[in-house]
Amino acid sequence: MSLLKIENLTKEFTVRKSVTKGHTIKALDNVNIELKERELLGIVGASGSGKSTMARLMVLLYRPTSGKIIFGENDVSKYKRSKLKNYRRNIQMVFQDPYASLDPFHNVEWHIKRPLIVNHYKGNINDRIAELLTQVKLDPPSQFLTKFPHQISGGQRQRVYMARALATEPKILVADEPVSMLDVSLRIEILELLLSLRDSLGISIVYITHDLSTVSMITDRIYVLNKGQVVESGNTKDVIENPVDEYTRRLINAAPDPFKKIEVE
Amino acid sequence: MAEGLVVENLTVGYHWENGFSKIINDLSLSIEKGIIFGIAGESGSGKSTFAQSIYNSLSYPGEIISGKVYFEGKDLLKTPKNELRRIRAVDITFIPQAAMNALNPVKRIGDQFNDVLEAHGKSSAEYEQNVMEVLKMVRLPPDILHNYPHELSGGMRQRTVIAMALVLSPKLVILDEPTTGLDVLVEHDILIDLKKIQRKRGFTMIMITHDLSILYEISDQIGMMYAGELTEYGEREEMINSSAHPYNYLLLKSIPRIGVKRYSGIRLAGNPTNYDENSKGCQFISRCPYRTYECELAHPDMNIVSGGNHHYRCLRYPQWKTDEK
To answer: How far apart are CA B78 and CA A205, in angstroms?
Structure first.
């Protein structure tokens, strides 16, 4: 069953040269994407392909120019105020740069407490914070509560941010390049955390990246975006083994692999 | 075998409010002429400090405590400032991290090329041929000389910086994270071009990055840095096929690859580099799954795998290999 459905979505940005002159750029052009329940979905593309715009549209940080975003049965694309807040409780986003997404003036506890307070959490807040930190494998939680972002590593920061995102008990997590800023040995742990969150919490995850090797490791299905259009989609294994589109082939060829050596004449 | 660069017992550190901490500890390395030598390390391993040290461009609070860096028989660390100024860009050049953002935003690219030439007393007319040649090498159209940096894409700016570094045909090129922040497709193209240029011109290239995949793709020889030391270095093929140090072995295992099943054996603990100045034993011990009591007692020396150029710093080689299940 589909959880989130993007239908004929187009997003245009206006580039102004002056007050009167300007033209529009189509960041996304008539895109259709379907996210199923308990699915790990990959959206792949090089820079400028519109993949981050897609992420921002999904959580309604941007509004579509045309098209629908259907969550459950309702088109959420024009939601405002309480309806929007309610929708955002169900869909949360993890950003690329864990060094920028946490507030350097506040400790870990504060970051996770905020969404709980804002959403009027009914139970014991401290227990819930501990539970969330355990979920993202920051164990024991007491060791991290009073830490400030600069005292923990990039991978741990990304985990704190994920705990914060999970605080509202979302049904969907949108992760935009969550590992590209991290060291190799930390990367794999975050990817495995995504897998385990999907399995243990039953949430759907949209994983957005330019790196096909990590996509092939964790996702069930992928969409390949190029210049705002879906050029290829399907089962991850099928797409990577038998790419139909030329652009997908280029991406696969460029995916970093230590066992591949660049040979020049 | 001629040496492109020889580093002897280099020790470097930084002054903090609580004293001084060593970042690079007694590092020795000799790099052959005309090859691509890749240095890999995680954040905090000291790889960028190493790059700045061998270029002798480290400034306070960083300080080079001891060591020698020989380039063509000269110790770069003892060379006076004005002479360093003369040989930089001419004989040896360094492209630091995020150099593409260091282009002057209010000057045309062509004028910035002229700045480089004039700083070394060369006339731009005389070197026009060279400029055109390096631009062709990095596959940029000559028109970009009339552009400002903001009119170029990230990849083009990176190519511009590489071209600028090569215009006086240096013999040694040091690159620190040359493709970080670039798109995969652009990154792949630049790596191929870099290797082509290196092969054509035959200079020695030292590339430093945290991205093990691209390093193994491009390098002839590879060195792994951990907590300010080289844990292992040698020919790429030996490093990849028969690692002598668990760090390199486990890192390679942890890289996701297309069409390869996920590795489920012993794993590298994900806590970042932790340099312990007081430790008597191996620096890698806290993350090493193969450690035994002997690793705590003595600091491992650099050893050579018999009959080759493959160096490693591990007490338990080759026993640890049989621990692997």
So the answer is: 56
Residue B271: inside a domain: yes
A61 lies in a domain? yes
Whether residue B73 contacts residue B153, with contact meaning beta carbons closer than 8 Å, is answered with no
Which residue shows structure tokens 């040091």?
B174
Cis peptide before A140 (omega within 30 of 0): yes
Output the six-digit token pair for B260. Answer: 């390869």
- Are the CB atoms for B206 and B5 separated by under 8 Å? yes
Q: Quote the pTM value.
A: 0.84
Query: Å from B124 to nearest chain A CA?
Result: 32
In this prediction, the answer to ipTM > 0.85 reads no
Q: What is the mean pLDDT of each run of 10 residues along chain B (325 residues)?
A: 86 87 89 93 86 90 92 90 89 88 92 92 88 90 92 88 92 90 85 93 93 92 91 92 90 83 71 68 86 87 85 88 72
The number of folded domains in chain A is 1
Closest residue by Cα to residue A94 from A14, A238, A10, A190: A190
Out of B192, B210, B252, the one facing A262 most closely (by C-beta) is B192
Whether residue A259 is contained in a domain is answered as no
Does B236 contact A261 at a Cβ distance shorter than 8 Å? Answer: yes
DSSP class of B263? P
Nearest Cα residue to B207 out of B180, B238, B168: B180
Which segments of A136-219 does DSSP mark as H helices, in order?
A: 142-145, 154-166, 184-201, 212-218
Q: Give long-range contacts, CB 8 A cutoff, 24+ apart: B320-324.
A: B320/B246, B320/B290, B323/B266, B323/B290, B324/B265, B324/B266
Nearest 5 degrees, angle CA B125-CA B131-CA B133? Answer: 125
Question: Which residue do the tokens 């993202």 mark?
Answer: A136
Domain presence at residue B295: yes
In whole angstroms, give the CA distance from residue A97 to residue A176: 9
User: In the structure encoding, which two tokens stand for residue B262, read together?
Assistant: 């996920």
Expressed in percent and rounded to 5, the helix, strand and coil fractions of chain A are: 40, 25, 35
Tell me, what amino acid is at B68? K
- Tokens 């090129």 label which residue? B173
Chain B partners within 8 Å of A262 (Cβ): 191-192, 195, 217-218
| Cβ proximity of A55 and A62 under 8 Å | no
Q: Does A250 touch chain B (CB under 8 A)?
A: yes
Half-sphere exposure in the Cβ direction for B74 (13 Å, CA)? 14
Q: Are A211 and A175 in contact (CB under 8 A)?
A: no
Residue A264 lies in a domain: no
Tell me the chain B residues in contact with residue A210 when contact means C-beta distances shorter than 8 Å. 183-184
CATH number, position A90: 3.40.50.300
* Calpha distance A41→A219 (Å, rounded): 6
